[in-house]
Amino acid sequence: MTKRTLILAFESSCDETSVAVVENGTKVLSNVVATQIASHQRFGGVVPEVASRHHIEQITKCTREALDRADVDYDQIAAVAVTYGPGLVGSLLVGVTAAKAIAWAHHLPLVPVNHMAGHLYAARFVGEFVYPQLALLVSGGHTELVYMPVEHEYEIIGETRDDAAGEAYDKIGRVMGVNYPAGKTVDEWAAKGEDTFHFPRAMEKEANYDFSFSGLKSAFINVVHNAHQRGEELSKIDLAASFQQSVVDVLAEKTERALDRYPAKQFILAGGVAANHGLRNRLSHDLSKKFPDLSVLQAPLKYCGDNAAMIGAAGYINYRYGDRAGLDLNAEPSLMFRHM
Ligand code: KG4
Ligand code: ZN
User: Fold this and answer.
1) I want to staple 298 with a disulfide (CB 3.0 to 4.6 A). Which of 91, 105, 258, 269 is the partner?
2) Within 13 Å, how many C-alpha atoms sit on residue 320's CB side?
3) Quick one: 239 and 311 in the same domain?
4) Residues 48 and 69 placed together within one structural domain of the fold
C-alpha cells in the first residue's frame, strides 16, 4: 500500500476562509469553504477590514469541520500548508497565524504556499502534470501566463499591466447592476448575447505576453453611460457577450503566442475566471486544433474559486521538495513566484 501523506491546508487570502485535508496532493478528503460574499456585496467589493474579522470568526470552526469531515485527527496529518501571499495582508495573517499555532502545538512541519501556485494545482485534481508546462492563471487579483520548465519552478512570462480579468468582470458587472462578484452572471448573460459592440482588444497583436483590461473596462463604461444619458436602454446580454468576447480573444491569442514561443507538453487553465464557460470552450477548441499533441487541463469548476484543497495540492509538492517555514513566517501581500 502506498503511503498516505495528509496535508492540512489553510486559505484566507481574500474573502473565503477555507480549510482542507488533502491526501497525496490529489485526493480531497475535505474542503470547507466559509464565504463572506454576502458581507461585502453591499460595498461592491471586498472590504479588507471586514474580511479579516470574518476570517478570525470562521477559522477555528472551519478547521474542526475539515478534520471531522475527513475523519482524521492531528496525529494523522503530515504537514500544515498555508497561503502566505499574495492577497490582503490582514486576511492572510489570520490563516498564517492559525497554521503556525497548529503546526507548533502538534509538532508538524509548516509549509508555505503561494496562492497562485495553489490555483494552478487545482488542475491536479483532474489529471497528472507533465512538463514543460504553461499555465494561464486568471483570477480576481491576477492575470498571468506562467511557464514551468520542470516541477516546482515557475517563471512569469506575461501578466496584466493594470486590472486583472476578474476585476474587470466585477467592475463592468457593477455598471449593469450585477452584485459582486459579477463574473458568473456576466458569463451566463454572455452565452445568450452577441458581440454587437466590438470593444477593443488591448495589446492583442503586441509582441509580448502581457495583458491590459482597463481600456476595455473604460470603453464599456463609456458606452453604457452615454446610452444612459440619451435615455437609451442597451441589451445587457449583448453588452456581456461583447465584453466577454474581447476578454476571451485576448487571453486565447496571447496563450497561443506563448505556446509558440515556449513549447509545452501541457497547458493548464486555473483561477476564479477559469470557471468562465466562454474561455474554457474557446481554449479547449483552439488549442486542440492548433497544438494537437498538447495536453490541456482545466481546473474543475468546483475548485476554480479560492479554496484550501488547491493549497493542499500545491502544499504537498512543496512539502516533498522540503520547503519549510519557521514560526516567523509572515504574510507577503505582493508575493511573486520564485524559483525554488
Ligand atoms: O480566484 P478567485 O476566486 O479569487 C482571487 O484570487 O481573486 O477569483 C474571483 C474572480 C472574481 O472576480 C469573479 O468575478 C471571477 O473570479 N469569476 C468569473 C467567473 N466565476 C468567477 N469570471 C468570469 N466568468 C466566470 N464564470
Ligand atoms: Zn484566488
Assistant:
1) 269
2) 14
3) no
4) yes
Question: What Rg value do the Cα atoms of the chain yield, rounded?
Answer: 20
Per the listing, cell 508538524 goes with 108
pTM over 0.90: yes
Cα 116 to ligand 2 centroid, rounded to whole Å? 7
The total of other beta-carbon atoms located within 10 Å of residue 96's CB is 25
**Could you tell me the distance, in angstroms and rounded to a whole number, from the CA of residue 186 to the centre of ligand 2?**
19
| CATH, residue 157 | 3.30.420.40
Q: Are residues 294 and 307 in the same domain?
A: no
State the cell numbers at 273.
475566471
The residue to mutate among 163, 169, 186, 298, having the most atoms of ligand 1 within 8 angstroms of its beta carbon, is: 169
* Mean predicted confidence (pLDDT) in 299-313: 98
289-303 residue pLDDT tens: 999 999 999 999 999
Same domain, 137 and 198: yes
How many distinct structural domains can be found in the chain?
Answer: 2
pLDDT in tens, 107-148: 999 999 999 999 999 999 999 999 999 999 999 999 999 999
For residues 140 and 272, give the distance between their C-alpha atoms in angstroms, rounded to a whole number. 7
The mean of the pLDDT values for the chain is 96
Ligand nearest to the CA of 280: 1
Q: Which domain holds residue 248?
A: 129-298
Looking at the structure, do residues 286 and 315 belong to the same domain, yes or no?
no
